[in-house]
């Protein structure tokens, strides 16, 4: 993690790479010649996007995770997690008191980042939405130590921070905050009810598999859906211990009563209206017979929720990606479209004109290269000054984006997006061109009309 040494506040140092305004030196050309009229605002933030063809008419059973799938949370929750874990580091792990100056910065980190803890060949990847405060705290502590010349062991530092964050969850602090003030932390409750009620009214079966405890889920669902929320679900499984739920056959299902007490009798069937704890997917499949493409499961974690279901069990999967809404709104801005279009034009000019090696041409090429780099940085900063888009790193998809494509049939900002589609709607993925396929950018359209550099010289080599 980088250190930012200045007299600025800790928050300002951490986010010091703020977006800067870079003049587009050929902006008039970009607007007038390279950007077709009406091209902005083409993408709908509330749309569902398909990686594979899938017909909802073939789906009979809908499954859901709870946190960040049925229940969406405000940024205030991340601030509480950050502040509490920071205080645990100071008060229990005896970290420097000066860390209290650091506060959570919404939008500082993005999912999909990797962190090298020098622990063998593997590195930590942050894929969970709940990992955003952990990444910010890790950056904050590292920033403090580097600015105060404090030596530290990277492995132990990461373990302390990870344990402090885990305490917030394991000890139930987060659950208490949310239960105490649902209105402050839970978003889109009415939409969650509308989605579930609509599916049930069309004779779809519903089930819930979550790692959260029943008392927490029960209070949240009563807030969003109503006191009879369990009537909508054919099965409710809590404290499932995903992703182990999908891979470990050993843990049996246990029935829970209204008070949360466990019954130890053998489970021979999963009954509607009952609550079950732990269990495993293999028993779930055996007891329900719910297999293959007639099942569609929604979750926010690409590994814990979706990967095994798609790769090993043939379920259809839907990824909930809250960041999608913000990113699409940025993509739809004229500033982004102008930057991206002129960047592509410069790339084409550099590629075709690099054959000219006289001094004047070399200088022009250097200017183009510099301007192209400035625009690339500007485009990245529009999403996130530190790390750019969650989906793309310059011209390549991010690791997160590649995993999203691999492990989800469809993806969307929230389950409320389902309300925009008929229950029998078929999603078709768009054909995206490979590098050698149909040109989409203005800089490529005339390539076939131009003389290919060095072609005559290549003829003599044959």
Q: Strand tally, please?
A: 18
Structural class: alpha/beta
Shape: globular
How far apart, in Å, are the first and last alpha carbons? Answer: 52 Å
Nearest-integer average pLDDT: 85
* SS strand fraction: 5-15%
Proportion of residues in helical segments: 40-55%
Low-confidence stretches: 1-6, 13-32, 446-462
Count the helices. How many? 18
Name the strands of the widest sheet in spatial order: 1-17-14-13-3-8-9-12-10-11
Summarize the biggest pleated sheet: 10 strands, mixed
Describe the overall structure.
With 462 residues, the protein is α/β, with parallel strands linked by helices. A 10-stranded mixed beta sheet has the order 1-17-14-13-3-8-9-12-10-11, with helices on both faces. A two-stranded antiparallel sheet has the order 2-18. The protein has a two-stranded antiparallel sheet with strand order 4-7. Strand 8, helix 9 and strand 9 form a beta-alpha-beta unit. The termini are far apart. The N terminus and C terminus are likely disordered. Keywords: Hydrolase, Magnesium, Metal-binding. This is 5'-nucleotidase domain containing 2. It comes from Phrynosoma platyrhinos (Desert horned lizard). Belongs to the 5'(3')-deoxyribonucleotidase family. InterPro entries: HAD-like_sf, HAD-SF_hydro_IG_5-nucl, HAD_sf, Pur_nucleotidase.
